[in-house]
Amino acid sequence: MTQLSSTSTCAVDQRLPLLQMILVSFQHVLLMYGGAVAVPLIIGEAVGLSREDIAFLITADLLVAGIATLVQSLGIGPMGIRMPVMMGASFAAVGSMVAMAGSPGIGLPGIFGATIAAGFFGMLIAPFMSRIVHFFPPLVTGTVITAIGLSLFPVALNWAGGGSAATEFGGLQYLAIAALVLGSILLINRFLRGFWVNVSVLIGMLIGYVVAGGLGMVDLSGLEQSAWVAVVKPMHFGMPEFHLAPILSMCLVVVIIFVESTGMFLALGKVIGKEITPEMLRRGLMCDAGASFFAGFFNTFTHSSFAQNIGLVQMTGVRSRYVTAAAGCLLIGLSLLPKAAYLVASIPPAVLGGAGIAMFGMVAATGIKILQEADIADRRNQLLVAVSIGMGLAPIVRPEFFAHMPLWLEPITHSGIALATISAVLLNLLFNILGGPERAALLNPHPHH
Fold first, then answer.
1. What is the per-residue pLDDT across 233-261, written as a single tens digit (0 to 9) for each?
2. Which is more confidently placed, 396 or 344?
3. Where are the beta strands (DSSP E) in 201-270?
4. Any idea what DSSP says for residue 273?
């Protein structure tokens, strides 16, 4: 055990040769870039921002993701788990933020205010999170992450059909581009290996972008006017505004993010052969919350660790936290280049749709994988998953389902993720935690394993 610990410590603290460090860190950036820019793209479109403002949201997101990745990898004071972790805007908050974007009088300032308040709330509860972690066994976590993937799926289909602004939604040209992107991703995963598989989403999007450009679907007007270099200004969209319902909704999202991050940190610990202590977990969650608090002032959203990068650590065998720290520096560099962000903002929705079907589907698949760790053969647990996912899909299948509920509940009743989480936690409490010792023994018949 001592040998494993010292070996893994060496691997985590290893400094690679400069060229190798840059190449491997760039791979991390490529892998998380699509996911990192997806959240500002979704929210920017939901709020109805111009392309210039969406480009600004993306650069702001890259800046905060880069700083948060540096802190998480290297550690500053009580923050940062000091492991190879990439940070970025969390998908968990998208449902709630889209609901806020559609609520009168909230908009971006209300979303940023809720993000700041939720980040502060996260810093307060981070030290206690390890104590309440038994409310979130794999059964609950897996159900929630599955619900996240399913609730994001309509966004992917909206993109694939040409997006909200499409003159002919579902036109064959949009469907063809989306199919080309998805087909490219699937073929790369079938016939190629290693690095190519890791960047298959980006390659698929690049192919789709080039073909869409050839068909005249890419609008680059205004690219020449955008600056080569610009610094992200805090509170670009005005002073943050604080409204109770959005704050409560985002505080719930932070709890969900903590649950996801806890699972990801534990998974990463297994990959690199390092035991995750409660103190390490607290530092990691403090960084998640601190990044979200900071993000609200810098025009972006709640942040969390990225699961796909943990898979990259496993595949490459490169466990050094200095690699992800270098990747954080690359992200900060990209945030200073508005032209690069403008190019990303010009990606047609149909291109994003093809990638989104794969990306959001993978989120759901991750949840299903986590559910395999639970006793899913048990009838009560099946009922928990069924009802919770059903609750999560209610506002997506019929958005008007909760139309007669109080208005202040809207950010929660319009968020499938929030409903699925509340349902899963309460049903797990009813069925399993309050089920008594006999029930606990039934659920965990081999405690020594």
1. 888 888 888 888 889 888 988 887 887 78
2. 396
3. none
4. T
All residues at 6 or more sequence positions from 342 whose CB lies less than 8 Å from its CB, including other chains = 51, 52, 55, 222, 223, 226
State the Cα angle at 86 between 8 and 16, rounded to 5°: 50
Model pLDDT for residues 16-33, shown as the tens digit of each residue = 778 777 877 876 776 677
Asked whether the whole model's pTM tops 0.85, one would answer no
Bridge partners of 305, per DSSP, are 87
Contact call for residues 369 and 172 (beta carbons, < 8 A) = no
- Residue 397: which residues within 8 A CB-CB, separation 6 or more? none
CA dihedral 268, 121, 293, 149 (to 10 degrees): 50
Q: Answer yes or no: are the C-beta atoms of 89 and 302 closer than 8 Å.
A: yes
Give the containing element (helix H, strand E) for 339.
Answer: helix 338-345
Residue closest to 144 by CA, chosen among 300, 218, 252, 293: 252
How many Å apart are CA 349 and CA 396, to the nearest integer?
Answer: 20
Biggest CA–CA distance in the chain, Å, is: 69
CA atoms of 93 and 355, how far apart (whole Å):
20
Residue 4 has pLDDT above 50, yes or no: no
What's the DSSP call for residue 79?
A: B
> pLDDT class for 439, splitting at 50, 70, 90?
low
Q: Where do the structural domains in the chain lie, given as residue ranges?
A: 2-437
Long-range contacts of 162-169 (CB under 8 A, 24+ apart): 162/349, 162/350, 163/45, 163/348, 163/349, 163/350, 164/45, 165/349, 166/349
Q: What angle do CA 26, 32, 35 make, to 5 degrees?
A: 150
**CA distances from residue 106 to 20, 162, 173, 239, 296 in whole angstroms, order as listed:** 46, 27, 35, 12, 14
Q: Specify the amino acid at residue 398.
A: R
Distance between CA atoms of residues 136 and 181, nearest Å: 36
Can you give the pLDDT at residue 438? 58
Dist CA 406 CA 139 (whole Å): 31
Which residues have C-beta within 8 Å of that of residue 347, sequence separation ≥ 6?
Answer: 41, 205, 209, 218
Q: Write the DSSP string, 178-201.
A: HHHHHHHHHHHHHH--THHHHTHH
One-letter amino acid of 34: G
Sign of dihedral through CA atoms 310, 304, 343, 60?
negative
Instruction: Give the per-residue pLDDT at 441.
Output: 53
